[in-house]
Amino acid sequence: MQPFRHLYVHLPFCRHKCGYCDFNAYAGMDRLIPEYVDALENELVFARERHSFQQLETVYLGGGTPSLLPPAEISRLLRFIRQTFNVSPDAEVTLEANPGSTDEPKLAAWLEGGVNRLSLGVQGFDPRALAVLERRTDAAQATRAFAMARAMGVSNLSIDLIYAVPHQTPQTWVDTLRQAIQLQPDHVSTYCLSFEEGTLLYRRRAEGRVPEVEPDLQWDQLDAACVELEAAGYRRYEVSNWSRPGLESRHNQAYWRCRPVYGAGAGAHSYATDGEHAWRWWNVARPRDYIAAAPSVRADGEELDARKRVAETLMLGLRTADGMAAPAGFDAELRRLQRAGLIRRIDGRIAPTRRGMDLHNQIALAVL
Ligand code: SF4
């Protein structure tokens, strides 16, 4: 089995559940945080005893809202990770933060604990779109959190934005992009809003209380993101991600390149491979159940046979602008994708075209 060099840690606590969110995230459970960190520590020790880990190249604390953890708890967790694993001196250590729960004492604890990349869940600057998303943070908070993080020394800052939001107009989206660019982030992720079953937003749309977004508007907004971000010096290196040169997310590259990633925490997924077959497994999802189950927290899993493993590698590799070496056994699918103008061949590699990036779901359908 190939050793793990990438660690994901899930922190499922949120102050409030946003209307569009179908992540494994819970509001009103903050009092479980100390026990949850204990359970995480137990899982990590258990994992290190059972799996092979090499020097970690990336650590990613995602959620949920990792920035909700009090400084003492996040410091304890970061310290524990460094004591338990060999974290490379130049590892990328990312923490997802909500602007509303980012303050100086927490930033000091993150930096002290070795966090060197912050992913700020801004989502937008336009109050109407933020209201539809039920975000409780506003443009002023986002701007303040960003400036504070920079001033305190976070050198690598990423911003998340959402488009195709009901009531978001072409102009408010362009204004959002420009406000984001003005902050000079190192990395920008733009996500198309999806209405996931079981969310409040899904129910509201079904009841006719939220208007549909015209598909044309969605494409225009994606196009505007390409124009604005590329003009400002960002490269679209993945379907939904732009960065300044050299500041692509190293952790996410591990997912797109199908490298082994160990996922710790409630509902976290792990991926392991021996280079031929692959295995995926996931932990029990609810924080209380996770705490009760620790350290043996695995809920279920599956094995991917050799063909499925390569198909996933192809599907994910074709999310990235650089593409990948063409794998054997998919000639017919690749020819069809090339004829449809979704991929191109360059120096023996295959890479998505702009159309292939915009319509990546068609690539996924063709190869999986
Ligand atoms: S803050 Fe993020 S994880 Fe938490 S509910 Fe909102 S969208 Fe979901």
What number is the mean pLDDT? Answer: 96
In angstroms, what is the radius of gyration? 20 Å
Q: What ligand species are in this complex?
A: iron/sulfur cluster
Low-confidence stretches: none
Q: Order of strands side by side in the largest beta sheet?
A: 9-10-8-7-6-5-4-1-11
Structural class: alpha/beta
Total number of beta strands: 17
Shape: globular
**Fraction of residues in β-strands:** 25-35%
Major pleated sheet: 9 strands, mixed
**Into which percent range does the helicity of residues fall?**
25-40%
Task: Give the N-terminus to C-terminus distance in angstroms.
Answer: 24 Å
Give the helix tally: 14
Question: Could you explain the architecture of this structure?
Answer:
- By secondary structure, this protein is an alpha/beta fold.
- The chain is built from 14 helices and 17 strands.
- The protein has a nine-stranded mixed β-sheet, with helices on both faces. A three-stranded antiparallel β-sheet has the order 12-13-14.
- The radius of gyration is 20 Å and the shape is globular.
- The two termini are 24 Å apart.
- The mean pLDDT is 96.
- It binds iron/sulfur cluster (SF4).
- The site of iron/sulfur cluster (SF4) has 11 residues, from loops.
